[in-house]
Design brief:
The termini are far apart. The chain is mostly beta strands and 286 residues long. It has one domain (2-285): Beta-galactosidase, Chain A, domain 5. It is built from one helix and 21 strands. It has one helix spanning 238-242; strands at 2-5, 8-16, 19-26, 29-34, 39-45, 72-73, 95-101, 106-114, 125-133, 137-145, 151-157, 160-162, 169-170, 179-181, 186-189, 201-206, 211-215, 220-227, 231-236, 256-269, 274-285. Strands 6, 11, 12, 14, 15, 16, 19 and 20 form an eight-stranded antiparallel beta sheet that branches. An eight-stranded antiparallel beta sheet has the order 7-8-9-10-21-18-17-13, with no helix packed on it. Bound molecules: 6-O-phosphono-beta-D-glucopyranose. 6-O-phosphono-beta-D-glucopyranose binds at residues 85-86, 158, 182, 202, 233, 235, 260. It catalyses: alpha-D-glucose 6-phosphate = beta-D-glucose 6-phosphate. One of its GO terms (biological process) is carbohydrate metabolic process. Belongs to the glucose-6-phosphate 1-epimerase family.
């Protein structure tokens, strides 16, 4: 179904019983969002080329988390009690609360709530996600603890950025930052500059400030700021690991770099309290 608005249109396509793909067309940008996972799949602010990468081999039918765009890792980052990587928010269908088309921006609000969605994390919760697509992009998620006990959670907005090739990209702000190296399992590593982001790389940097993904091949910079998130996670699997991952199309690891805005340590939330976290993304030519 296609709905027309003054400044653009929305095409809704049901892909399975688990969700729909929402295709937003606006004079200034295009974007795609999957209700399964509440996941941004693309954002294409004109005249730049598309900002996010999405695998051509990833199923969109709800059978597993979608590999691409911005998977939402919540209520935990990484593994937790052997209950799977990155929590369950990316594996459930979110509801569309509202969509608003304006002259310069499209705002989309999605909601996920429930109790006992995982044995490891059975508490009642509500997540409200506000996406604002424009010539910039912003994403904010508010978590409300609707249970009667204090809850802990961690999170990451797992951005898959489309790049010319990881070997042509750098993040200058991280060269003097301490990090945990997930590959060697060493924590608290002193700053060590990467020549480029060619994989395998899997690091958690402890840094609050804005970072810039410089892509010399595309001649483009992506500036990412975050709030209520103390870490940046930089990940690319490299060829050997990627070749074992059926949801990365052949050679796909040469097309993206993940720069994730996260909080990999637990945060605590009192009953009936809310906590928000999010990010803002800007693009410019070098
Ligand atoms: O395959 P998943 O669960 O989407 O995770 C992908 C990667 O996500 C990154 O955030 C982690 O640091 C990596 O260790 C992990 O491999």
């Amino acid at each position: 179904m296609v709905r027309k608005f003054t400044y653009g249109s929305l095409e809704e396509t049901k892909v399975s019983e688990h969700g729909e793909i929402l295709k937003i067309s606006h004079e200034k940008f295009d974007a795609t969002v999957s209700t399964f996972g509440g996941q941004v799949l693309s954002w294409h602010p004109k005249p730049y080329s598309p900002i996010f990468w999405c695998s051509s081999n990833t199923p969109l039918d709800g059978s597993k988390a979608i590999r691409g765009g911005i998977p939402i890792c919540w209520p935990w980052f990484g593994d937790f009690q052997g209950k799977g990587n990155h929590g369950f928010a990316r594996n459930h269908a979110w509801l569309v609360k509202h969509i608003k088309f304006e002259r310069d921006v499209v705002e989309l609000v999605l909601v996920l709530f429930g109790t006992e969605l995982s044995d490891a994390w059975p508490a009642g919760f509500k997540l409200v996600q506000t996406l604002r697509f424009s010539d910039t992009f912003s994403q904010e998620i508010t978590y409300t603890n609707i249970g009667s006990d204090i809850q802990r959670f961690s999170h990451a907005l797992h951005n898959y950025f489309q790049v010319s090739t990881p070997g042509q990209t750098i993040i200058p702000e991280l060269k003097e930052v301490w990090f945990d190296d997930k590959i060697s399992e060493r924590q608290g590593c002193p700053p060590q500059e990467l020549r480029n982001l060619e994989g395998p790389v899997d690091r958690i940097y402890h840094f609050d400030n804005t970072v810039t993904l410089i892509d010399k091949g595309l001649g483009r910079a992506i500036e990412i700021s975050k709030f209520n998130a103390g870490q940046w996670i930089v990940w690319n699997p490299g060829e050997d690991l990627a070749s074992t991952m059926s949801d990365i199309h052949p050679g796909g690891e040469q097309e993206f770099v993940c720069v994730e805005a996260g909080n990999t340590n637990w945060l605590e939330v009192e009953p009936e309290q809310s906590v928000s976290f999010g990010q803002q993304i800007k693009v410019y030519n070098l």
